[in-house]
Design brief:
Layout (H helix, E strand, L loop, with lengths): L1 E6 L3 H12 L4 E7 L2 H10 L4 E5 L7 H8 L7 E6 L5 H6 L4 E4 L4 H16 L11 E6 L2 E6 L5 E5 L2 E6 L2 E5 L3 H8 L4 E5 L2 E4 L3 E5 L6 E4 L2 E4 L5 H9 L8
Parallel strand pairs: 1-2, 1-3, 3-4, 4-5
Antiparallel strand pairs: 6-7, 8-9, 8-12, 9-10, 11-12, 13-14, 14-15
Protein name: LytTR family DNA-binding domain-containing protein
Organism: Sinomonas flava
Pfam families: LytTR (PF04397), Response_reg (PF00072)
Length: about 240
C-alpha cells in the first residue's frame, strides 16, 4: 500500500485524479494540493510515497517543485501529469517514475501505480537513475516513450516499429541492432520479424502449425528455430516448490 499526493492548480483535475487513485486497492491514502507551496506543507506533515505533479502551475511549477523534492533525504516517487509533452525529456532527467498525459486513462494510471509499488517494495533507485527513454517522431511531433512500455518490436525493412499500449512508433533502427541493444533489458528474438519483451508475454501457444505468443494484446509468430530459446527463458521464470 502506498500514499499519494495529487498537485494541480485546477480543482477538477485534482478531483478526477484523486478519484482514480482512490479506486486502486494499492493506494491507501490520497492527499491533495492546489499549488506547489501547499504541496510542500503537506509533505512536511505527511508521509508520502508518490507525488503526482502538474507541470504548469502558477508560482512554484511542477518541475521546480520536483527539483526541491529531489533534495529530500527520502524523496517520494515523482509522476508528472500534464496536457503536453514538451517537458518529457526534462522530466525524465529529473528521474521521474512516469509522465502521464491528460486526460489520464485509468489503465495507464494502473501501470504507473504498479511501477511505484514495485519501486516502493524494492530498493529505491539512485536519484540520478532515469528510465530508458526513446525519442520518436510521429506526425511532426517529437514524443518520448519509455522502453518498458514497449511490448514488442516489429521489423519494417531498415526500420523497426515499437508497439506500446498507447500506439506504435516507427524508428530508423534495424531490428538486429535493437536485438543487440535491448537484449540485456529482456527483449528476445522470437521470429525474423519480431522482438518481444519477456515481461509482456501473456501466453505461449504451441498447438497448430505455427507456435505463437500473445504479448501486448497481439498474437506474434514464433519460429521453430527460436522456440527452444524462448521456452528456456519462460521456464526460468516458473515458480517451483522448495525441496
Amino acid at each position: 500500500m502506498i500514499t499519494a499526493l495529487v498537485v494541480d492548480d485546477e480543482l477538477p483535475a485534482v478531483q478526477e485524479l484523486s478519484y482514480l487513485l482512490g479506486r486502486d486497492e494499492r493506494v491507501s491514502t490520497v492527499h491533495t494540493a492546489t499549488s506547489g507551496t501547499e504541496a510542500l506543507k503537506v509533505l512536511e506533515r505527511e508521509d508520502v510515497d508518490a507525488i503526482f505533479l502538474d507541470i504548469h502551475m502558477p508560482g512554484l511549477t511542477g518541475l521546480e517543485l520536483a527539483r526541491v523534492i529531489a533534495r529530500f533525504a527520502s524523496p517520494p516517487a515523482v509522476v508528472f501529469v500534464t496536457a503536453d509533452e514538451d517537458h518529457a525529456l526534462e522530466a525524465f532527467d529529473l528521474a521521474a517514475v512516469d509522465y502521464l498525459l491528460k486526460p489520464v486513462r485509468p489503465e495507464r494510471l494502473e501501470r504507473c501505480v504498479g511501477r511505484i509499488v514495485d519501486q516502493h517494495d524494492g530498493a529505491r533507485p539512485h536519484p540520478d537513475a532515469a528510465p530508458e527513454v526513446i525519442t520518436v517522431e510521429q506526425g511532426g511531433v517529437t514524443r518520448m516513450i519509455r522502453r518498458d512500455d514497449v511490448a514488442f518490436v516489429q521489423a519494417q525493412g531498415d526500420y523497426a516499429r515499437l508497439h506500446t499500449p498507447e500506439g506504435s512508433y516507427l524508428v530508423r533502427v534495424p531490428l538486429t541492432d535493437l536485438e543487440r541493444q535491448w537484449g540485456p533489458a529482456g527483449f528476445v528474438r522470437i521470429h525474423r520479424s519480431y522482438l518481444v519483451a519477456m515481461d509482456a508475454v501473456q501466453q505461449l501457444r504451441l498447438g497448430g502449425p505455427q507456435p505463437f505468443v500473445v504479448a501486448g494484446g497481439a498474437e506474434l509468430p514464433v519460429s521453430r528455430r527460436l522456440l527452444p530459446g524462448l521456452r528456456e527463458r519462460l521456464a526460468a521464470t516458473r515458480i517451483r516448490p522448495l525441496t
